[in-house]
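Sequence, please.
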């Protein structure tokens, strides 16, 4: 995978995977994260889903892989992908059958 492909993946379909990986590391290695309320954990997931594609787009622009275009061409697709990933991840969590949920 090239740098351009990695940034494209991080700004589109990989948003939820990267956010999930970050949260799994936080859960495993940061005990204070485990003490947070479920609503706070969901908020952190949503924030990560919005920040990750913006960081990927910014890295693409800074490294010359992407182009600084208009808001609609550069940043809006990243925001849409982040919102989509956050919505789907939250929806799955909300509708997961009770045996799959962590008590």
């Amino acid at each position: 995978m090239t740098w351009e492909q990695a940034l494209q993946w991080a700004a589109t379909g990989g948003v939820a995977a990267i956010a999930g990986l970050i949260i799994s590391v936080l859960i495993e290695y940061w005990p204070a994260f485990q003490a947070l309320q479920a609503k706070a954990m969901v908020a952190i997931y949503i924030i990560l889903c919005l920040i990750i594609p913006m960081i990927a787009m910014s890295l693409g622009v800074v490294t010359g892989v992407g182009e600084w275009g208009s808001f609609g061409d550069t940043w809006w697709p990243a925001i849409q992908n982040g919102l989509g990933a956050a919505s789907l991840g939250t929806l799955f969590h909300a509708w997961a059958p009770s045996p799959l949920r962590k008590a």
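The chain has a mean pLDDT of 82.
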